[in-house]
Write a structure and sequence with these properties.
Elements (H helix, E strand, L loop, with lengths): L2 E2 L5 E5 L2 H4 L12 H8 L16 H14 L4 E5 L2 H4 L9 H16 L3 E5 L7 H4 L7 H18 L5 E6 L2 H8 L11 H25 L4 E7 L3 E3 L4 H24 L4 H9 L8 H9 L4 E5 L4 E4 L18 E2 L7 E2 L4 E2 L3 H13 L5 E5 L4 E2 L14 H19 L4 E7 L13 E2 L3 E4 L5 E4 L1 H12 L1 E2 L3
Parallel strand pairs: 2-3, 2-15, 3-4, 4-5, 5-6, 6-8, 7-9, 8-13, 13-15
Antiparallel strand pairs: 1-19, 9-10, 11-12, 14-16, 17-18
Bound molecules: 6-O-phosphono-beta-D-galactopyranose (BGP).
6-O-phosphono-beta-D-galactopyranose binds next to loops.
């Protein structure tokens, strides 16, 4: 073995309830913002495919978990849908949802697969959005009750909890860039949502620790290292600002209990500070995570601003820096994301050196392309060697960081079975396993699935 990982390393994959369960209007589940948005604007979704079906895990979880075991998983992350467990957002718990999630958790454990559970993966109940989403304290309170309900129902068996998946995404996609519902473009409201999310997170962490269950709680953040175009001080400053907005806005409060002072200063200067109560800051200060999930897909390259922004345009973080398209960068053109493997190492070293070497694991990394069918081989399965190479190249850097002391405990690929990817629907396929939507959700293992099994069983890999 050339690249060997620590003992008891978590190998597995990640997914989320809304992206894989399907059965959207079944057994008492009520609409989330995704169901609603698809109903009113189906044309915003690739090929107009909505969230109602996805890959049918609600019905096929037993077979899927058996497949996970077959492919070497010792852990798997999915999310509990708020809209399934507490369909109105607050109030009655749905007994059918309790049964379903109990079955999933028990089935995972029976197969030797550690369940990692996310509480919120972009899926605001519509009823809660109508009350203002995380701009509203009422919704923050409802989220904390939802979290507590999950801890009490499933915390005897679930040892790894995540309050939020990529909390910056609903902020930027939903309140700045018109990529997710509610399609608001308003920096001040975005800041309020970010603050409400941070508070909801801290209060859920507090509640979890008060319950003294046998487990750990964290959050999953998408860390996108910011690289300056050059060492020119103007470029370096621009990259620092981007880092504040897109990484440290959540990373610092959840690990250190404080927002970065220079980020607060920028927000104050532009008069966008959120409304809060004094005690909120104390709650955030006191309730730090036990461990971190890191999603890594792409870096961010930044340069100093070339032009003054239109003074009438809505304020954006990009009023303070420009994104930089480095010539000849390696791209996944189907997703529009740069592939830069070394960033995996840089993230780990940053956590080691600047965040008290806190324990973490890679909670998502992966690659999907359009039209994977072209890789189907004579035996009828998809030979996705591009995905295997993607994993190898990232795992090499992860391995180096671990050898240099990074406190990393696992690697989860996004994702297990091709899933419904929000507005991209089924455009880019990410799975170790193909789902044939035209044929009763039939599953076919891809080459990467077989490779992943060897990787997990050998706890490492060789170079060819
Ligand atoms: C992450 C999300 C996942 C997943 C993945 C792939 O940001 O946590 O839910 O969707 O990205 O990205 P996309 O689906 O946008 O292609």
């Amino acid at each position: 073995m050339k690249y060997v990982f620590p003992q008891n390393f978590f190998w597995g994959s990640a997914a989320s309830g809304p992206q894989m369960e399907g059965a959207a209007a079944v057994d008492g589940r009520k609409p989330s913002i995704w169901d609603h948005w698809y109903n009113i604007e189906p044309e915003r979704f690739f090929d107009q495919v909505g969230p109602e079906n996805t890959s049918n895990f609600y019905y096929q979880y037993k077979e899927d978990i058996a497949l996970m075991k077959q492919l070497g998983h010792n852990s798997f992350r999915t999310s509990i849908q708020w809209t399934r467990l507490i369909p109105d957002g607050v109030g009655e718990v749905n007994p059918k949802a309790v049964t379903f999630y109990n079955h999933v958790i028990d089935e995972l454990i029976a197969n030797g697969i550690e369940p990692f559970i996310t509480l919120y993966h972009f899926d605001m109940p519509l009823s809660m959005q109508e009350k203002g989403g995380f701009e509203s304290r009422e919704v923050v309170n409802a989220y904390v009750l939802f979290a507590e309900t999950c801890f009490k129902l499933f915390g005897d068996r679930v040892k790894y909890w995540f309050t939020f998946n990529e909390p910056i995404v609903p902020v930027e996609a939903g309140y700045l860039y018109d990529m997710h519902y509610p399609n608001v473009v308003d920096f001040k409201r975005a800041v309020q949502v970010a603050f409400g999310t941070t508070l909801a997170h801290a209060r859920a962490v507090e509640r979890y620790h008060e319950l003294a269950l046998d487990g750990q709680i964290g959050i999953v953040l998408n860390l996108t290292p910011s690289y300056p175009r050059s060492q020119n001080p103007a470029d370096v400053k621009a990259a620092h600002i981007a880092d504040l907005f897109f990484n440290r806005s959540f990373l610092d409060p959840v690990t250190k209990g404080e927002f970065p002072a220079d980020l607060v200063e920028i927000i104050r200067e532009h008069d966008f500070l959120p409304e809060y109560q004094l005690n909120d800051l104390e709650i955030i200060r006191q309730n730090k995570i036990d461990f971190l999930g890191v999603n890594y897909y792409q870096p961010r390259r930044v340069k100093a601003k070339e032009n003054l922004p239109n003074p009438e345009a809505p304020f954006m973080p990009e009023h303070l820096f420009d994104n930089y398209a480095m010539p000849n960068r390696k791209m996944n053109r189907y997703r529009g994301w740069e592939i830069y493997e070394k960033a995996m190492y840089d993230i780990c070293i940053n956590l080691r050196d600047n965040y008290h070497n806190l324990p973490f694991y890679i909670s998502e990394n992966g690659m999907g392309v359009e039209g994977e069918d072209r890789y189907r081989n004579e035996e009828g399965f998809i030979d996705d060697s591009y995905r295997i190479n993607f994993m190898k190249e990232h795992l090499k850097w992860l391995n180096k960081a671990i050898l240099e002391g990074a406190n990393c405990h696992g690697y989860h690929l996004w994702t297990f079975i091709d899933c419904w990817s929000w507005a991209n629907a089924y455009k880019n396929r990410y799975g170790l396993v193909e789902v044939d939507l035209a044929n009763h959700y039939k599953r076919i293992i891809k080459s990467s699935g077989y490779w992943y099994k060897d990787l997990a069983q050998n706890n490492g890999f060789c170079i060819d």
